[in-house]
Amino acid sequence: DTAVPLYQYLLLNVQDIDGKGLNFRSYGRLADDLAGEVNVDSRLYYAYLEKKNLLEGLDFKLGRQFISTTAGASLMDGLYLNYDNLGPLGVKLFGGGDVSYYEGYNAEDLLAGVELYGRFLDSLDVGLSYLQKWDESELGNELFGLDVDYTYHNALNIYNETQFDYLSNSI
């Protein structure tokens, strides 16, 4: 083989597009085989608009982005909202198309989820999350997550994540 794959990773971030804190963030990979022998894939890892404090305490992201909760994680084309103006609590909502690089993009692959989180007693962080993934319009995953992070006097840290798969009734 005389393949000569060439990869160029590109990062583009544009700050304060509208003069009111709207940002654009993107990262991807351009790929080609200079000898034309193998098929190499270019990839868009993320590209989204982001605005913090759209309304007081409400942040949003719109576009391709990585979503991570204890219930699950995925790359999605969609909307992410984070509202943290509920006293010690906050809530994250997200939904959109589930992106898979290896199987191709299918408009019927969807995901949606929610996370309720909070900080208590100045050293206890607790999060409860829920995630659904749909594969070709069929419910493929229904997951619940719980994470607890406790720090005692900056000397001891205890952290736990637990995920429950509702469809298979397993942890």
Provide structural commentary.
The protein is built from no helices and ten strands. The protein has a ten-stranded antiparallel beta sheet, with no helix packed on it. 15% of the residues are buried. It has 171 residues and is mainly beta. The model has no long low-confidence stretch (mean pLDDT 92).
Structure summarized in a few sentences:
The protein has 171 residues and is mainly β. It has strands spanning 5-14, 22-33, 43-55, 58-69, 72-86, 89-98, 110-120, 124-135, 138-152, 156-165.
List keywords for this structure.
single chain, 171 residues, 0% helix
For the secondary structure, the number of strands is 10
Low-pLDDT runs: none
Work out the oligomeric state of the chains in this entry. Answer: single chain
Strand line-up of the largest beta sheet: 1-2-3-4-5-6-7-8-9-10
Determine the mean pLDDT. Answer: 92
Strand fraction: over 45%
Please tell me how large the radius of gyration is: 20 Å
Helix content: under 10%
Secondary structure layout plus pairing:
Elements: E1 5-14, E2 22-33, E3 43-55, E4 58-69, E5 72-86, E6 89-98, E7 110-120, E8 124-135, E9 138-152, E10 156-165
Antiparallel strand pairs: 1-2, 2-3, 3-4, 4-5, 5-6, 6-7, 7-8, 8-9, 9-10
